[in-house]
Amino acid sequence: MVDGTDDLTDLIALMAKLPGLGPRSARRAVLHLIKKRGQLLVPLADAMQRVGANVRECLNCGNIAAGDICNICNDDRRANGEICVVEDVADLWAMERSQQFKGRYHVLGGTLSALDAVGPEDLRIPRLLDRVTSENVTEVILALGATIDGHTTAHYIADQLTGVTVTSLAQGVPVGGELDYLDDGTITAALRARRAL
Amino acid sequence: MISWQDEGAVLRVRPHGETSAIVEVFTIEHGRHVGVVRGGISRKIAPSLQPGAQIAVTWKARLDDHLGSFTVEPLRSRAVNAMSDRLALAGLNAVCGLLAVVLPEREAHGALYAQTVQLLDLLGQTEVWPLAYLRWEQALLEDLGFGMDLSACAVRGVNEDLAFVSPRSGRAVSREAAGEWADRLLLLPPVLAGKGDATTPEIIKALATTGYFVEHRLIRSLDAGRVLPARNRLLDAIQRSE
Prior knowledge:
Number of helices of chain A: 8
CATH superfamily of the largest domain in chain B: Recombination protein O, C-terminal domain
Strand content of chain B: 15-25%
Family (chain B): Belongs to the RecO family.
Pfam family, one (chain B): RecO_N
Shape of chain A: globular
Function (chain B): Involved in DNA repair and RecF pathway recombination.
Number of domains of chain A: 2
Shape of chain B: elongated
Oligomer: heterodimer
Order of helices and strands of chain A: HHHEEHEHEHEHEH
Order of helices and strands of chain B: EEEEEHHHHEEHEHH
Keywords (chain B): DNA damage, DNA recombination, DNA repair
Protein name (chain B): DNA repair protein RecO
Strand content of chain A: 5-15%
Largest sheet of chain A: 4 strands, parallel
């Protein structure tokens, strides 16, 4: 039992719900915040308040934005006719880290799943179809996970899109990967997608 | 501690907490069985737990009615074959989806298991897969107590000119016996009774008949209509493959 006020107990209970934290690590984190009140606790509370007030989903692409429209959608230099479709914002950030893609994104918010009753209307697929026509898109890059659900979603989207080039990310050996540690599915995919040197 | 070892095909994987997964496996001796796989959504294990994958499992629990945990070892992946082909992908989703909702838990279905593994191994072979799926769906209905009797007419006992199936009894009805009731009966294409050419249009007709029993007898009674879109996408893919 924590000695202190109900506020502290509430804070610990909320922190314990964060990914990677449990009740014990939440207690440690809260104690650390209290010890570093000036450097951490107050700035963190301010930052969280600002994020809570300003940050929301971009109305255009589903990315996280500090307004109605995100920076990427607002940037005219990124209107190059390419849209990269990703499952969630974490995937968008991963693509941005690579600094290779210069177009715009579309965040679906999940993948189709019959068993979990996730249908096209539960994802941002209708909005994607609207964007393809309204933004003069020439290529849609499907950067969805190499999973059964990811590919089911990719095929569904490809079926819905007409008049644009639809591509998907390649599959194969990861950079730095050793064959001995790869599963047979990845090796098969890599072998099928081999190219001449 | 209770423990057993078996082999089976993965039907469904759901995340459990931050690192684990709840996995449903269709096993040889223990039927559809659920268990927790520790670290099941890790980069190392997740590729082996895609629906349709063949795995060896060890299940352990303190009591028999506990959820228990699985230790898994991959045997063969079917994901690559499925993901590279639209029909195979739709087929895999339909098969795993149906099995996950209609099979009772912890009840062995040896014959259906064997037919399921055979069907999954054929994934990617577009020419033979639709017919194999039709036979599998007939076996699924048979195994769960809703099999069709297509050997003779339910009204007159004859075994010639059988053209319809009664939606009520699942028995064949001859064209003559059907008479004015024909529009209330389901079609009996020859391919459904193992005769005639297995062309795509005939298979589609046969799947409409089996689909009636799958939907009205199996799925509706279990309130599991959410898997129907997966089956519909398969029918659409079969039609496109013609």
